[in-house]
Design brief:
Blueprint: E1 9-13, H1 34-47, E2 51-53, H2 70-80, E3 85-90, H3 97-110, E4 115-119, H4 125-130, H5 138-157, E5 161-164, E6 169-173, E7 187-190, H6 194-200, E8 206-209, H7 214-230, E9 236-242, E10 244-245, H8 249-261, H9 265-280, H10 294-298, E11 309-310, H11 312-324, E12 329-333, H12 337-364
Parallel strand pairs: 1-2, 1-12, 2-3, 3-4, 4-7, 7-8, 8-9, 9-12, 10-11
Antiparallel strand pairs: 5-6
Helix pairs in contact: 1-2, 1-12, 3-5, 11-12
Bound molecules: flavin mononucleotide (FMN).
InterPro entries: DMSO2_SphG, Luciferase-like_dom, Luciferase-like_sf, SsuD_RutA_monooxygenase
Domain Luciferase-like: 10-328
GO molecular function: alkanesulfonate monooxygenase activity
């Protein structure tokens, strides 16, 4: 297993869809506008965040009545920042790898190498039906995503690229210019199911998963890393967490209670039905949301389960526990984004760096 000496990376969810990151009627001082998001991106890069992750949704379905498109929105954030890397969510099906390879290569030039992508495989049948896209079975969606990623890597690194897949074909294709980043912009991919993990263990640079306990995450990560080692593939792991950092634990817990007490019950159930259909549709029944409770689903990627809820010290300690089981990146969501990203940068991040140092020194000794 790899030596865990690199500093943990931090990403935040871009609120490019309305309604924030929790399906709750509680007040959220978070806005989905371009102006708010540009200010948030500037705050996040000052606070020490490495990445911003945009979301792709074509329809509302439940909550999130407005949804800005991820690739265009990512460009607005790149224009407003200088260091932050921005991850554009991409959905195979609506997007073809030829278009994505070309678009992202150009954005890589515009942004001096700060764009990456998150290939999502789709979970919402209603969305695909609404835009007239065929809905594939669970594992077929992941087989398509795998070909999608293989094709992108081929286009970005080779001239005269030829590919014969079941979903995509390329004939002697040369993309020019190639991206600035070498070998190519980072490719993230998310899920939890067997198929998602197998893609992580063979083609993705990063694997994103829903919030969970360190014990459960360790099972997933070990499974992926053993397979990745057999495939001679290197993959890093990012985990979702909804962060509620307050000066006292009582305050933080009270915020969580309030979010759940104000849950938008109908919207949570609607999401749960669609998500469970997608998650448990995986043949082994281990997909995201297969085991989520009503409370978990109020944060739609199980972000409460990671339990980054408490004082800055409690949170920092839990973050380094996650690092110890093989997590490389924390993907954070917040209730009031700008102010909480700032607080996180001031109060939590320095403690994480201290604890990482201490762990390193202990190891060296
Ligand atoms: C961090 C993260 C971000 C995701 N972002 C999106 C997104 O923007 N749009 C989308 O349709 N699905 C998104 N997904 C959903 C995944 O692509 C996938 O459909 C879902 O996790 C179910 O996968 P599973 O059946 O393998 O567990 C995301 C998942 C994760 C973990």
């Amino acid at each position: 297993m790899s030596e865990r000496q690199e500093e943990l990376k931090f990403a935040y969810w871009v609120p490019n869809v309305s309604g924030g990151l929790v399906v709750s009627t509680i007040e959220q001082r978070t806005d989905w506008s371009v102006e708010y998001n540009q200010k948030l991106a500037q705050t996040a890069e000052r606070a020490g965040f490495d990445y911003a992750l945009s979301q792709i949704r074509f329809t509302a379905g439940y909550g999130a009545d407005n949804q800005h498109e991820s690739v265009s929105f990512s460009q607005a954030l790149l224009h407003a920042t200088t260091k932050l890397k921005v991850l554009a969510a991409i959905l195979p099906g609506p997007w073809s790898p030829a278009v994505v390879a070309k678009q992202i290569a150009t954005i890589d030039h515009i942004s001096s190498g700060r764009i990456g992508i998150n290939v999502v495989s789709g979970w919402f049948k209603g969305e695909f039906t609404a835009i007239g896209e065929p809905w594939l079975e669970h594992d077929e969606r992941y087989r398509r995503s795998r070909e999608f990623i293989e094709a992108l890597k081929g286009i970005w690194t080779q001239d005269n690229f030829t590919y014969r897949g079941d979903f995509y074909r390329f004939n002697n294709y040369t993309l020019s210019p190639k991206p600035v980043q070498k070998p190519y912009p980072e490719i993230f991919q998310g899920g939890s199911s067997r198929a998602a993990r197998d893609n992580a263990a063979s083609v993705s640079d990063w694997y994103f998963t829903n919030g969970n306990t360190p014990e459960n995450l360790k099972l997933q990560i070990d499974d992926i890393q053993v397979k990745a080692a057999n495939n001679d593939h290197k993959v890093r792991i990012g985990v979702n967490a909804f962060v509620i950092a307050r000066d006292t634990e009582e305050e933080a817990r009270a915020v969580l209670d309030d979010i759940i007490a104000h849950a938008h019950v109908e919207a949570v159930h609607a999401f749960g039905d669609a998500a469970r259909q997608a998650g448990s549709a995986s043949p082994e029944g281990e997909g995201n949301w297969a085991k989520s409770t009503f409370e978990d689903l109020v944060q739609y990627n199980d972000g409460f389960r990671t339990n980054l809820i408490g004082t800055p010290r409690q949170i920092a300690e839990r973050i380094v526990e996650l690092k110890a089981v093989g997590v490389d990146l924390i993907l954070a969501g917040f209730l009031h984004f700008i102010e909480e990203v700032e607080y996180f940068g001031q109060k939590v991040l320095p403690l994480v760096r201290e604890l990482e140092e201490t762990a390193l020194r202990r190891k060296a000794a």
